Inverse folding.
């Protein structure tokens, strides 16, 4: 009988990892990831639940699609509508390519959460593979077979159209566009599935959450289809490709961050813990204030430190607002509005302005209206930012600055004095702009925190803490500033405008 | 070697492991015992760098579990609570997969899995899919996986559960052989007989805290008291107890037998024999009452529960 302690020639490569060059490390990472990929792909290929649909969608569906194309082509030709064919024909390869790719979502969920559910993940996590190697290996495994199937399916379909009776001659650029779109769609689904899988403990829960991927993807494919049938608008597909690529980068960053051993094994139940959630939020909202609560202490120990943590976010928002302002300015040169007809001494115009200013004078309802309008926009920015990793928050707060730049440019280009316009913005803007900057930064953080939760925190905890910070900054700083700005906008700004115009 | 110092792990507000400190020397088997949910698995997961400690530190095979996680995992063989095999793979494919992960040389990848499978009686199942393996076979294969890269440290969770007696014995022998090879071994188990026969040191963990730690004799002495001796006579006791006054304290007696505690049997037992034979009593047998780890374990857990109740009451 052989011995269990028979000495091996085990190379101590893992212990010597620090001695490797970055290039060697990258190669090692890929080699290790591919060990996982090979096993997973082999496992998938032994699973008839995966192989049968892939086989059907790769080999049978393109042939069916081809037969359907023949029928439709004949129908169009017999009805004298063959001119429409060049616009419609590229639609089908996209569909033929998308169907097998959609399986990558199923494989990804199976690969990540399925393994967790079958309890086979822990032995793998106990090995020296790094989180990145595991993440890459599993992502490749989820992506490669469906992507390969998709390429084969498209090749079969397009090959039969090109070489068959149809004699279709698609532009090379169009083919590249379709292949690229299919590839990025597979990537976004897999990277999204990793994020979903990391947050659940059962395939059932993961499948439910997968609707957050399937629904937007279906809508995207519909949009792509709509664009595809309008050849002169196909350039928009490049923008979609870039947009999806950006989403992939965000999802990869998020997936790589949350795909870690602690998160995968530390999570035991997909249970909504309202008490814990509220406690976490409240703890963050209140901050490290001593037992005896006072507003002064809350500001000093909780609100201002939270505000300081938004410095980089504020800088990003400031850059966006400035860019939007100059973007608006540049747009004015392209879309000029004829303002020459307005003269500063136009009596009717000035009379109208005077009556409007009198109407609003010291009207408290206007203060409320101005404040509500600003708060509504900031709230919408915060809410939409949550679902778009903060992107929509940036867009929403930037749009008014784009409009400002556009109008100011129009005024200046028309030879009118910009002074009344500036006077209508500056007095309350001095307070309102910092409020928008701060609120925008808080909304950006709330939306983007899920992509990179701080070390040692789960996504949920990080988000709840960001929500607590957003709430206290919103209530403690943004709200008072917005109210003050509204008061100034109604009480002071009109007086300054009157002064400038000499009314 | 395994060393931990004030190792603590919190899951949100719940403290799963509470400031535990212990060390396991090479060539030693350390058994971690405790009720379900006591924190054994969390401790093992921290020692394999799967979970990060909330506070405290641990070193495994000379590597820090937080800063040198990859090196730790390369030096440890782990048998997890759930063996979690890939059911669609063949036994040999499964081991080859792990052998590649551990960077075994091509020759070792060929040789080592077959050698270990053969050793554990799985030679005939090399080419069979794991879904066709029995529970015991799966457990043995999981153990083979843990030993595959010849690690200096082994962390084994319930190593013989689901095994037939013959296989369990084979595994125990393998573990003893690994000890002789100066490996550091930690096992967590509910099988107290196994722990008693294998472990050099034993720690009892409850609610995340180590409530007892020592060798079996040390734990016996501390929690169950001095060895209990049982003495049988040919005739009725009739004043035998009085004869022993000042020598030992009789704790239990029957018609023709009695039990006493002997803190040092080497000194006490000859005195007892002299007294009784001197009084004309014929001794049939004198033996130590066997006390198992189960007695010790139950005593430890009960004492801790009692302490906890007192603390609760005083609050």
């Amino acid at each position: 009988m052989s011995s269990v302690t028979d000495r091996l020639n085990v190379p101590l490569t893992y212990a010597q990892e620090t001695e490797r060059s970055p290039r060697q490390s990258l190669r090692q990472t890929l080699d290790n990831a591919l060990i996982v990929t090979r096993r997973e792909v082999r496992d998938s290929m032994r699973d008839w639940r995966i192989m049968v649909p892939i086989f059907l969608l790769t080999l049978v569906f393109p042939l069916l699609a081809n037969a359907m194309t023949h029928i439709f082509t004949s129908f169009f030709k017999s009805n004298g509508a063959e001119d429409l064919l060049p616009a419609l024909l590229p639609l089908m390869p996209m569909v033929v390519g998308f169907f097998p790719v959609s399986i990558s979502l199923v494989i990804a969920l199976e690969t990540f959460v399925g393994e967790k559910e079958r309890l086979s993940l822990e032995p793998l996590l106990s090995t020296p593979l790094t989180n990145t190697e595991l993440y890459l290996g599993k992502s490749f495994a989820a992506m490669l077979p469906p992507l390969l199937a998709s390429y084969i399916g498209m090749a079969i379909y397009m090959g039969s159209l090109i070489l068959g009776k149809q004699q279709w001659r698609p532009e090379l650029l169009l083919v590249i566009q379709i292949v690229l779109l299919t590839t990025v769609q597979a990537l976004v689904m897999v990277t999204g599935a990793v994020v979903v899988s990391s947050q659940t403990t059962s395939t059932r829960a993961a499948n439910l959450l997968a609707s957050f991927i399937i629904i937007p993807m279906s809508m995207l494919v519909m949009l792509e289809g709509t664009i595809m049938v309008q050849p002169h608008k196909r350039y928009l597909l490049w923008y979609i490709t870039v947009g999806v690529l950006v989403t992939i980068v965000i999802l990869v960053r998020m997936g790589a961050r949350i795909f870690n051993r602690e998160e995968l094994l530390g999570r035991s139940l997909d249970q909504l813990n309202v008490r814990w959630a509220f406690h976490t939020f409240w703890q963050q909202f209140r901050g490290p204030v001593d037992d005896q609560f006072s507003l002064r202490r809350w500001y000093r120990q909780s609100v201002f430190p939270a505000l300081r943590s938004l410095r980089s976010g504020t800088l990003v928002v400031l850059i966006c607002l400035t860019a939007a302002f100059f973007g608006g300015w540049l747009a004015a040169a392209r879309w000029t509005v004829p303002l020459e007809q307005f003269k500063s001494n136009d009596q009717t115009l000035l009379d109208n302005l005077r009556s409007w200013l009198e109407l609003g004078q010291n009207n408290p309802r206007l203060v409320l209206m101005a404040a509500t309008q600003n708060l509504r926009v900031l709230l919408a920015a915060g809410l939409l930012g949550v679902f778009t990793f903060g992107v929509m928050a940036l867009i929403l707060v930037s749009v008014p600055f784009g409009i400002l730049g556009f109008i100011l440019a129009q005024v200046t280009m028309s030879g009118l004095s910009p002074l009344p316009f500036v006077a209508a913005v500056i007095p309350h803007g001095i307070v309102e702009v910092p409020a928008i900057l701060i609120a925008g930064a808080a909304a950006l953080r709330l939306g983007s925190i899920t992509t990179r939760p701080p070390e040692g925190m789960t996504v949920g905890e990080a988000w709840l803490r960001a929500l607590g910070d957003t709430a206290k900054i919103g209530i403690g700083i943004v709200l008072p500033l917005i109210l003050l700005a509204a008061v100034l906008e109604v009480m002071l700004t009109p007086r300054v405008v009157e002064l400038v115009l000499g009314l | 070697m395994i060393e931990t110092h004030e190792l603590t792990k919190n899951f949100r507000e719940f403290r799963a492991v509470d400031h535990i400190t212990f060390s396991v020397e090479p060539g030693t088997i350390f058994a971690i015992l405790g009720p379900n949910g006591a924190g054994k698995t969390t401790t093992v997961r921290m020692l394999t760098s799967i979970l990060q400690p909330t506070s405290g530190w641990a070193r495994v095979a000379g590597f820090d579990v937080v800063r040198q996680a990859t090196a730790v995992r390369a030096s440890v063989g782990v048998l997890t609570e759930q063996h979690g095999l890939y059911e669609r793979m063949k036994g040999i494919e499964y081991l080859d997969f792990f052998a590649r992960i551990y960077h075994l040389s091509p020759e070792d990848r060929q040789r080592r899995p077959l050698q270990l499978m053969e050793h554990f009686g799985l030679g005939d199942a090399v080419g069979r899919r794991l879904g066709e393996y029995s529970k015991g076979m799966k457990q043995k294969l999981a153990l083979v996986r843990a030993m595959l890269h010849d690690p200096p440290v082994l962390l084994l969770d319930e190593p013989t559960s689901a095994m037939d007696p013959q296989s369990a014995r084979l595994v125990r022998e393998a573990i003893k052989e690994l000890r002789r090879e100066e490996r550091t071994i930690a096992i967590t188990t509910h099988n107290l007989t196994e722990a008693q026969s294998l472990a050099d040191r034993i720690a009892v963990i409850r609610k995340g805290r180590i409530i007892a730690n020592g060798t079996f004799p040390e734990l016996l002495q501390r929690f169950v008291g001095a060895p209990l001796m049982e003495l049988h006579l040919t005739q009725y006791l009739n004043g035998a107890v009085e004869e022993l006054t000042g020598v030992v304290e009789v704790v239990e007696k029957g018609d023709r037998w009695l039990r006493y505690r002997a803190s040092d049997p080497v000194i006490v037992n000859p005195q007892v024999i002299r007294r009784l034979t001197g009084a004309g009593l014929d001794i049939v047998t004198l033996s130590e009452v066997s006390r198992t780890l189960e007695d010790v374990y139950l005593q430890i857990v009960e004492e801790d529960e009692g302490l906890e109740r007192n603390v609760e009451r005083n609050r």
